[in-house]
């Protein structure tokens, strides 16, 4: 077994998971901010849904959660 290669692969994997988690959090914050604005229209909801692939129900949960933690 090549332990250094295995450890390197593990580290790369862990770094990728952390980067993916951070990117998803950024996307969730930006989507919630876009939809929480008082001027958000049904077209905005549709556009965010198309871009993210998230359903309206998922977006509503996201916006509700953002309200609860008072995100911008």
Question: How is the secondary structure organized here?
Answer:
Layout: H1 3-36, H2 42-52, H3 56-69
Question: What can you see in these coordinates?
Answer:
Helix 1 runs antiparallel to helix 2. Helices cover 82% and strands 0% of the residues. The longest helix is centred in the first third of the chain and has 34 residues. It has one domain. The protein is elongated and about 60 Å long. The chain contains three helices and no strands.
Summarize this structure as a short list of keywords or feature phrases.
72 residues, mainly alpha, 82% helix
Shape: elongated
* Rg for CA atoms: 17 Å
Count every beta strand, where a strand is a DSSP E run of 2 or more residues: 0
The count of domains is 1
Q: From the helix content, strand content and strand pairing, which structural class follows?
A: mainly alpha
H/I helix tally: 3
Largest sheet: none
Report strand %: under 5%
Report mean pLDDT, rounded to a whole number. Answer: 93
Q: What order do the SSEs take from the amino end to the carboxyl end, as H and E? A: HHH
pLDDT below 50 for ≥5 consecutive residues: which ranges?
none
User: Helical residue percent?
Assistant: over 70%
């Amino acid at each position: 077994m090549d332990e250094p290669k295995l450890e390197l692969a593990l580290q790369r994997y862990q770094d990728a998971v952390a980067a993916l988690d951070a990117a998803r959090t950024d996307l969730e914050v930006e989507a919630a901010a876009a939809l929480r604005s008082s001027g958000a229209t049904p077209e905005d909801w549709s556009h965010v849904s198309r871009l993210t692939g998230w359903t309206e129900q998922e977006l509503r949960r996201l916006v509700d959660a953002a309200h609860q933690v008072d995100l911008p």
